[in-house]
């Protein structure tokens, strides 16, 4: 088990290997399909993105409504490949990691290697566990998208596996 403080330990990403269990603490932004489409339009129009990509990460999640007394609703990952068309450009603009589930395209893998970035895998079906790792939620952009809006999550001991490391090693290869 490896603990990573996303504010201070980004330099440790290069030592992570595909398959490593990692507990993340710090800031991650949420974004799914609709938010990615809007970010792509902002990039194409040479406009500022709603958050700085540099050394930050995106969690592909669309949470359920929060229950009374909960900070965040069930927060399981969504299928990452739906964002593959957008991810290489975001990585080239400074995105350092993404969290989701499932395989990634060759283009995403190449961009991860090119940018010394990481693809973390969150366990499908573990949304309640992940919700309990969220300590703070802030609205960032595109609130009209509801659960697909961009939010800034503060997370603590958020368990993930390294799916693709900075050298391009992929836990899905060899299946």
Q: Which terms would index this structure?
A:
175 residues; single chain; globular; 4 helices; 5-stranded mixed barrel; 18% helix; alpha/beta; 7 strands
Task: Describe the secondary-structure layout.
Layout: E1 2-5, E2 21-30, H1 33-44, E3 57-59, H2 87-92, E4 97-100, H3 106-114, E5 118-121, H4 127-131, E6 134-141, E7 150-164
Parallel strand pairs: 1-2, 2-3, 3-4, 4-5
Antiparallel strand pairs: 2-7, 5-7, 6-7
Describe this structure in words.
The protein has 175 residues and is of the alpha/beta class. Helix content is 18%, strand content 27%. The protein has four helices and seven strands. The chain has a five-stranded mixed beta barrel with strand order 2-3-4-5-7. The radius of gyration is 15 Å and the shape is globular.
Radius of gyration: 15 Å
Estimate the strand proportion: 25-35%
Ends: how far apart? 24 Å
Compute the number of helices. Answer: 4
| Inertia-based shape | globular
Main sheet: which strands, in order across?
A: 2-3-4-5-7
Helix content estimate: 10-25%
Order of helices and strands: EEHEHEHEHEE
Total DSSP E strands: 7
Low-confidence stretches: none
Major β-sheet profile:
5 strands, mixed, barrel
Based on secondary structure, the structural category is alpha/beta
Mean pLDDT: 92
């Amino acid at each position: 088990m490896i603990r990573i403080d996303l504010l201070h330990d980004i330099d440790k990403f290069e030592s992570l290997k595909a398959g490593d269990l990692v507990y993340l603490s710090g800031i991650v932004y949420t974004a799914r399909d609709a938010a990615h489409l809007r970010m792509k339009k902002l990039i194409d129009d040479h406009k500022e993105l709603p958050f700085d990509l540099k050394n930050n990460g995106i969690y592909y999640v669309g949470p359920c409504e929060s229950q009374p007394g909960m900070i965040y609703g069930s927060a399981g990952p969504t299928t990452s490949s739906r964002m593959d068309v957008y991810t290489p450009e975001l990585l080239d603009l400074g995105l350092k990691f993404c969290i989701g589930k499932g395989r990634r395209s060759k283009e995403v893998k190449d961009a991860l290697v090119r940018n010394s970035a990481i693809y973390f895998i969150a366990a499908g079906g573990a949304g309640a566990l992940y919700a309990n790792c969220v300590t703070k939620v802030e609205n960032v952009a595109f609130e009209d998208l509801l659960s697909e809006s961009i939010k800034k999550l503060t997370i603590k001991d958020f368990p993930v596996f390294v799916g693709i490391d900075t050298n391009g090693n992929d836990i899905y290869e060899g299946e």
